[in-house]
Amino acid sequence: MLRKLVSLRSSSRAYLKTDIPPVHSGVQVLSLYHDRLLSSATSKLPSAQKPPPTPHTRYTKFWTQRSPIYRRLATLLQVVQYTELLWEMAAKRKGERVRWSVVVLLEAIKAICRLLLLRLTNSRPLLSPPLPAREDLSMLEDQIQVDTEDFQSIPTDASVAWSMPRTGLSLPSLPATSDISSYLLSRVLTADDVKPAKALLPRISGKGEIAEWLYLLRPVIYAVAMARSSQDKRNWRPWLLGFGIEFGARQLAKQDALERAANGRGGLTALEREELARRGWGMAWWAMRGAFYENVTK
After folding, report:
1. N or C: which end of the chain has fewer CB within 10 A?
2. Exposed e or buried b for every residue in 87-108, given b needs 16+ CB within 10 A?
3. Which residues contact 257 (CB under 8 A, 6 or more apart)?
4. Which long-range contacts (C-beta less than 8 Å, at least 24 apart) are formed by 29-33?
5. pLDDT (tens digit, 9 = 90+) per residue, 80-124?
């Protein structure tokens, strides 16, 4: 019985090492194809039935439709991100040296794609993901249900409806004042709703551009540092270098935003605040990396 349990445990480990990464990568890559199908399907719908796009969707869809090069680079970047674990595990079988060489190569490819995207967008901060997110099509079903309920709730009694003198057609009674207010409030437009998609992210220069370059090149620098100290996992130098670069880039970006606001060029847009918050939460992953994980978290 013990031998059976040992053999079952070893076989399960082999299954996890060989089957899970290909399945995960395949599902993620397949989702890109599904997103393209859903995007093409929703583009054929009437504008009244389309779900309201988020600022991220508006901005990324603008660049993917305007620049085919942007779309290809963003797709390549997403494919590399979805399959990097698979490539790393395949290279690990040939030794740690080959593994870290592949990791550095993958990070270099991603950095080149991001820098080219930065160039194509005229020095605008790069969003993550660079492709439009999948739209929530469940809202279409809810909208159809609401429209059906509204149609069924129209009064048919002639005493309630008002007949127009010339055409003889009848109109239903007006809703209550509270219903009118909620209807209008649900359709209030914000400043970002009327802005062109291109203006949702302003161009950056000076400290802001330096901060973006540091943020995009940080993964390559950290991977090279980790490759050189792969024999000593408790070495703090790679971790301090990577964390220091990302923290410095974040501080430079904040200073650039304050200077823009002081000079009257406008503060952070909603999309900028969203991306800055996402990068701030992303810094929490440093507690699970390198020497911090080996010496503290583990």
Report:
1. N
2. bebebeeeeeeebbebbbebbe
3. 208, 267, 268, 272
4. 29/79, 29/82, 29/83, 31/134, 32/75, 32/78, 32/79, 32/82, 32/131
5. 999 998 899 999 899 889 999 999 999 999 999 999 999 999 999
Kindly report the pTM of this predicted structure: 0.75
Q: Contact 211/250 with Cβ under 8 angstroms? A: yes
User: Other C-beta atoms within 10 Å of 37: how many?
Assistant: 9
Please, are residues 73 and 120 in contact by the beta-carbon 8 Å criterion?
yes
Q: What is the rounded distance in angstroms from the CA atom of residue 50 to the CA atom of residue 247?
A: 40
Distance CA 254, CA 170 (A): 59
> CB-hemisphere CA count at 13 Å for 287?
5
The residues pairing with 171 across neighbouring beta strands, listed in sequence order, are: 162
Q: Rounded to 5 degrees, what angle do the CA atoms 16, 291, 91 make? A: 40
pLDDT tens for 228-253 read: 988 888 899 999 999 999 999 999 99
Q: Tell me, letter by letter, the H, E, C secondary structure of the chain.
A: CHHHHHHHHHHHHHHHHHCHHHHHHHHHHHHHHHHHHHHHHHHCCCCCCCCCCCHHHHHHHHHHHHCHHHHHHHHHHHHHHHHHHHHHHHHHCCCHHHHHHHHHHHHHHHHHHHHHHHHHCCCCCCCCCCCCCCCCCHHHHHHHHHHHHHHHCCCCCCCCCEECCCCCCEECCCCCHHHHHHHHHCCCCCHHHHCCHHHHCCCCCCHHHHHHHHHHHHHHHHHHHHHHCCCCCCCCHHHHHHHHHHHHHHHHHHHHHHHHHHCCCCCCCHHHHHHHHHHHHHHHHHHHCHHHHHHHHC
Amino acid residing at 246: E
Give the residues across from 162 on adjacent strands: 171
Tokens matching residue 14? 């082999």
